[in-house]
Amino acid sequence: MKAAPVTARLRAALNQADLLPLSPLLHPDVHWAGRETGQADCRGRAEVITRLAALHQHGGRVAVEETFTYPDAVVLGISPSPQGPPHGDRAQHLYTVFHLNGGLITRIRGHRDRHTALDAAYNASIHPHPASAPAAGTATTGAPNRGAA
After folding, report:
1. CATH code of 119's domain
2. How many structural domains does the chain have?
3. Whole-number Å distance between alpha carbons of 89 and 105
4. 136 in any annotated domain
5. Based on the number of CB atoms within 10 Å of its own CB, is 2 exposed (0-12), middle (13-18) or buried (19 or more)?
6. Is residue 99 part of a domain?
7. Distant-in-sequence contacts of 47-51, Cβ < 8 A, 24+ apart
8. What is the pLDDT of residues 12-46, one digit of tens each?
9. Burial 64-81 (b: 16+ CB within 10 A, else e)
10. Whole domain around residue 14: which residue ranges?
């Protein structure tokens, strides 16, 4: 699957809080590195779906404010809005990079600002990182690996 349909499906799933359709887009050993945003790492489809679902807990909603599509990455600018009055003057805005390999999301990384996220996505697309490849011995959809654009 190309990056543009992945972008559309991510946006729809997060905006509508219907995350199960994302499962086929996630590599079985997908890794979410949350160090920059202060979250713990998680690995595997179930843990990633659980983390995404947590954005919608307690009556909150998630708005995908921006999307950027690269050949091997998708960046979403996400605004989680808890139910009730806003806390503070500024809404929280997160940028998440979904790295793609063979049409599947293999790595996810949260960033605190747009510039850092866009830089990570651009660099991943022109210099694919070996860590974006699925772990040895794990099956993929059979799609060829994508090289530099």
Report:
1. 3.10.450.50
2. 1
3. 34
4. no
5. exposed
6. yes
7. 48/108, 49/19, 49/20, 49/22, 49/23
8. 998 888 888 899 999 999 999 876 666 788 999 99
9. beeebbbbbbbbbbbebe
10. 3-129
